[in-house]
Amino acid sequence: MSETREKGQADKGPFDVSRKIPLVPVATEKLQDAVRQLTALDPILDAHIDRRGHLRISYAASHLDIRDIETLLDKAGISHASGSWWRLKSAWYRFLDGNARANAHSQGGACCNRPLRHPAAAATQAR
User: Fold this and answer.
1) Residue range 71-102, pLDDT digits in tens
2) Does pTM top 0.90 for this prediction?
3) Checking DSSP bridges between strand 44-49 and strand 16-22, what pairing results, if any?
4) DSSP state of 8
């Protein structure tokens, strides 16, 4: 299954995620420059600043995670919120993104090669 697709394509890939990151207020030009840098990266499908000053970003979690996004923002001189709510939400995003990346790069199927069968189905097959 191919995970590559063009930016702006309507269908959502299996590991595409959308995140909202609250930012510390900064000059509009600096924000626009950071958004341009982010959208230039292939795994980032969309990025923009909403009316409330939050970064709305969509990316392929099979290639990037929230830590990578935060690092890119730091390099651009953009700070994200540092309150307890954001720390909790960021930890949740890290968990989800790590899980998506692990699933995307998994070589095997389910963790068990013999899935459970319903008892009624097993009784029917035994006859």
Assistant:
1) 999 999 999 888 999 999 999 999 999 999 98
2) no
3) unpaired
4) T
